[in-house]
Amino acid sequence: MSSRSWLAGVAWRAARRGLAVRAAASVRQLRASSGGPGAEEAAPCYGHWAAAAALAVTVIAAEHYNEKRFFKAALLGNVQELEKQIQSLETVVGSGGGGGGEEEGSAADRRHTLGWTALMAAAANDRAPCVRALLARGARPDARDRYPGAAAAAARHGLHALDILQRREEEFCPSMNARASYLGWTALHYAALGDSADSTRALLAGGADPTARDHAGRRAIHYARDASPTRELLVEAAKDWERAAAAAAAEERRRFPLEQRLKRYLVGQRAAINAVAAAVRRKENGWSDEDHPLVFLFLGSSGVGKTELGKQLARYLHGDQPGAFIRLDMSEYGERHEVAKLIGAPPGYVGHESGGLLTRALQKRPDAVVLLDEVDKAHPDVLTVLLQLFDEGRLTDGKGKLIECKDAVFVMTSNLAADEIAQYGMQLRREAERPPAGLAPTVSAPDAPAVTAPDDQPAPEVQVSRQFKDQVVRPILKRHFGRDEFLGRINEMVYFLPFSRAELLELVQLELGRWAERARARHGIDLAWEGGVLGALADGYDVHYGARSIQHEVERRVVNRLAAAAERGELPRGAGVRLEARGGRLALAVRRPPDGNYKPLDAE
After folding, report:
1. CATH domain 65-243 topology
2. Which of 72, 375, 477, 518 has the most crowded CB, counting CB atoms within 10 A?
3. How many Å apart are CA 602 and CA 576, to the nearest integer?
């Protein structure tokens, strides 16, 4: 009998006798030896034994683990029972039986069926020894609770709400409102609410983030009592954490300036990027008026990157934190009564208790980036509300509550004067690309290779003149908004110009690249193209629709034909497609496996 067969037999016999730990050790030895020489030949001898032994180990260990006992031990502070349950879970994991959730990295992070962890239960009940024991076992201090409240949990799990309330009371904490939602709470939130200084100290020592926010946008300190040791611990920890985060962010900004980050996501618009980056840099480094929020007005045609720049600005300032980016389509606020939808209905009106979309969002994140899309379509009464917001950095909601948002950044977009800006931008582009006077244009032989500018020589940057801003754009804005005080609250009016030829080629390259990835992922087709294809597709650029016209051109001239060819069965999985340009027209050539040659498919 081989050593592998012997190990399989030992594991099986130990499992039958209830010796789960011994059986699990034998299974692990068996798995470790399965990769050696002769493993494939020996597999039939011990494969079924090993699988059966692993299954038996899993069943036995699972019988030892009891969810109610595990979380009850955390509630009551029974460290010994916690250790016993964790050992049972580790036996399941070690034998290949699984046992964690999709995020859990250790047995100590095992989630309750209703969403919380043992560390949260220990913190909520002021069981500091259990908190330290769980952290030592690898429990993550910043794991988030998934308990949505009794009613939502009952609907999700198909149980009665009373059953949910009873389980929350018996297996989590009897003194907390089980009807409320605790989504996004960490163990530190629970320790703060329970006023547990010892648990708070242990969690902070274990690496808990005192600046973490729950789904309502609140930190743990929001739930701490005033003038308590717990609050003092959280205040000091938050200061240290924020200082370290600020130092790391400053170093990151020095290494990768905002301009460099934004250029990774936007094509062209260097003047707009530089203007936004300069204003944000002033605010971040303390060289701006701290009593007023930062306000931008993005002007230009559709599809030139106005909305995308606002999104990337929010990502730069706040990462992917929930609620840090607020987008409002101002075309939905074209009527006078829709002011209530923005700030909340006054007392006595329907919807008074729910508040307004903007005020609720700013109450959660006073430092958010707020994108007010197509602000020119909003009613003048809405603009009056925004006037107060931009002037004082504060807003009173329908309930009379004052919301401070001086740290927010407001980005308004508008298509006002879009035609004038587009025509002026095209004129600037032509003047910038015109060869200097006195130099004859370069003439290349028909068979000479094309000469391209080096990558480190970008197209010349064009600037909008002060005369154009004052004499053309500002009268249009003043005529529409009807008030100088509104325009006077705007820190920067940022102009987005039409794309240059080089930028159009880059847009086409990016769009074709996206479709090539989709073709490969969805259909197993390799899509390639010649250099002339970029110029042929760039000719479909419409200055009034910006990058969207390039997207439509690629869909019309390339994607539509690929879809039609696939429908006819001419693009089997594993095929290759090459786009070719002939006199401004596009042609498709297909290489079907196992043939190695491209054959013309059709003409455009």
Report:
1. 1.25.40
2. 375
3. 15
